[in-house]
Write a structure and sequence with these properties.
alpha/beta, S-adenosyl-L-methionine, EC 2.1.1.-
Amino acid sequence: MAASGKLASFRLPPLPTVGELIKLYNLRAEKQLSQNFLLDLRLTDKIVRQAGSLRDAHVCEVGPGPGGLTRSILNAGAADLLVVEKDTRFIPGLKLLSEAAPGRLRIVHGDILTYRLDRGFPTNISKPWEGDPPNLHIIGNLPFSVSTPLIIKWLENVANRTGPFTFGRTRLTLTFQKEVAERLTASTGSKQRSRLSIMAQYLCTVHNCFTIPGRAFVPKPEVDVGVVHFTPLVQPQIQQPFQLVEKVVRNVFQFRRKHCHKGVEKLFPEARRVELTQEMMQQADVDPILRPTELTIPQFRALADAYARLCAHEPALLTYEFREELRLKHVARKSNTASSPTLTDAPSGVAESSATPLKK
């Protein structure tokens, strides 16, 4: 009885439904902000369960909107919930929730892409990286437009142990378009294997939890939605700086249907491309005719290590970008074309006089 009484104390008092709040505050999902509301509390409860136990936990919710997922987090027993909401229209409804859960809900009106999450929670919740994850979770039903740049930013934070990962191996439970969720969790050889697969999986254990049909959202998006859970690894599978790894992976996958050496070639200036590509592939001991989707993370590790050794010997390689070389060539061609004289540019009569012999 005592346990059930304690659990009951976590739950919110009777409140207007999320649908009633939407009507009360005349809220509409903004298409340009990729907003889609999830009103079914059974589904928001299911998302929250993927995070694990939230009893007495610290939680950051990204883009709470009308507060459906917020209610599920509070009902799960979170002691301290920080919500970061960019859209001012949702603030009054969130304040109503805050009043119903005194001392448990903090509201920040801001952009999650720029908000300093490392300042959002007390330092005493930190855990050593090599130990268990801290009792801190990031949960969010992300707008489609922000989901990929945000997870790339957080993966870089994982690699550098910055942002929300200054507290330790903070866990993430987030929604993505189904296609993006499949890319994040794709295994070697699958059609969905991509740059995102490698960048996520070399740093985290990534689990595609379940799929929410698009019809569950208001308004209904054209795609279904996947819920993905991330737990940072104690040791990344590739021991190189994030930017170097991202550069290698990005170049390899820019020709995803071709042999992997085609992408590796673009890491090097044209004048030395063949020589350095051959050297890198030999050092990494990776079959150059494998396709990018067929490469394992250990093989990407070998490629990144080989590239790092070449860059240590020739630091200018690290800043080389294939597309920038292409751009400069294009500018040079345009400049040469503009400055080359043509017959129409010549003074009147010059072409004719040079072709007509002088009369004696």
